[in-house]
Design brief:
This protein is of the alpha/beta class. The protein has one domain: Purple Acid Phosphatase, chain A, domain 2 (4-Layer Sandwich), CATH 3.60.21.10. The strands form four sheets. Strands 2-4-6-5 form a four-stranded mixed β-sheet, with no helix packed on it. Strands 1-3 form a two-stranded parallel ribbon. The N and C termini lie far apart (54 Å).
Length: 149
């Protein structure tokens, strides 16, 4: 892919929240200050140390961070797109990235193609208790059944 094609691919495939979307989010969060909230969207707003994913992350993240800074009821930011479960922080809150449902991106140093299409799909289950303690469980989804003793 030549540099022009690569730039066009990034322009098309990276994340960016329009001003109208951020205004909407600010308004919705402002109307619901009494309840804990999760802010969920597709592209991670930070680098994850995976070059392929980092090139197509959410850009303009400082604008989103400013919105979140006005809303202390936001407990965490949830996103996907990276095809690998990951946990970090963004705007002073947990940022949890869901695992892939179609493929898993290989991490730097792992051999093989960028994506492992043989890996099972994954899910993340987030729970929030009465003390606002967030717990996340990540699981592979397999076709087999399980039994307990």
């Amino acid at each position: 892919m030549d540099p022009g094609e690569q730039a066009e691919a990034l322009r098309i495939h990276h994340g960016f929240l329009a001003d109208e979307t951020l205004d909407w989010l600010d308004g919705v969060l402002g109307d619901r200050r009494e309840a804990p909230a999760f802010v969920c969207f597709h592209h991670p707003p930070v680098t994850l140390g995976v070059p392929y994913v980092d090139e197509i992350r959410l850009f303009g993240e400082d604008r989103l961070a400013a919105v979140l800074g006005r809303h202390p009821q936001v407990v965490a930011v949830l996103c996907g797109h990276a095809h690998t479960a990951a946990a970090t922080t963004f705007a002073g809150r947990p940022l949890l990235v869901a695992p892939g449902v179609v493929s898993t991106i290989r991490l730097p140093g792992q051999n093989g193609a960028v994506a492992d299409h043989a890996a099972p799909p994954g899910v993340a289950l987030h729970t929030l208790d009465d003390e606002r303690r967030l717990t996340t469980h990540c699981r592979a989804v397999t076709g087999g059944s399980s039994t307990s003793a």
